[in-house]
Amino acid sequence: MPSASPRSRAARTSARGTLKKSRGHPIRSGVWTASRLLVLALALVATFGIFFLTAFRVTTVAREVAVPDVRGLAVADAGRLLTDSGLAIRVDDLRRPSTEVPANHVVSQDPEPGTVLRRQRSVRVRLSDGEEGREVPDVAGTAERVAEATLAEASVTVVSRAEIRTSDYPTGTVVSTDPPTGEASSGVNLLVNRGERSSTYVMPDLIGTNGRQAVGVLRARGFRATIVAEVIYPGLPSGIVIRQTPQAGFQIAFGETISLEVSR
User: Fold this and answer.
1) Three-state SS for 11?
2) Would you say residue 199 has pLDDT above 50?
3) Cα separation of 16 and 10, whole Å?
4) What whole-number distance in Å separates Cα of residue 134 and Cα of residue 2?
5) What is the pTM of this model?
6) Three-state secondary structure string covering 12-62
7) Sign of the dihedral through C-alpha 127, 129, 135, 140
8) Residues 210, 183: contact at Cβ < 8 Å?
């Protein structure tokens, strides 16, 4: 048989090489496809993670706001500015005299301007009483009735009373005032000792609860609870407790009065 020519042998060798390459190509192709899928999956996971973190951050920031500076503004203007910022205004019962801030304008605020708060939180403002401030007389250590008469004589109004129960002072005695003695103010808060009783309880935190339900529960347990005011509070449904007297943590006894302010 005649031997194959060198050209024929070269052709067969080339064909075998091509066959080997063609047999190996599907494996490399599968590995390359799997790698691309893995990279794509990792890219999708990374994209989702970035999107989730960004959305979480945006949502968190959207619920927060910097407290604007309302000092020096009329109370109506201050309320509008705070409402536009997503916050609520709470006017302090006490007023402070000021030679720089006109009467019925904000003389101080809490929290301070620039503080970051969640939306719908309230900012407490204290209004100016103008230049006609009266000096708070010293009534600490006197009986409550005597303190009231002394303050009335000085044209200082008793705005509110807070109570404690202790054996350190006689029952019915004024322990301290806010503002303290010597400061100029047309109103004052009294801290009065009601004396110790055999059964006292810790005042619960009712803020955020349904006012009528809270009143019903307290009255059923022997307390004189009542809703004393309804205040506009953006973002809350009506009837939710936004302020309470006494505050949470105070000692209370049967028969004591508990005053609640609710949203309107």
Assistant:
1) helix
2) yes
3) 10
4) 133
5) 0.38
6) HHHHHHHHHHHHHHHHHHHHHHHHHHHHHHHHHHHHHHHHHHHHHHHHHHH
7) negative
8) no
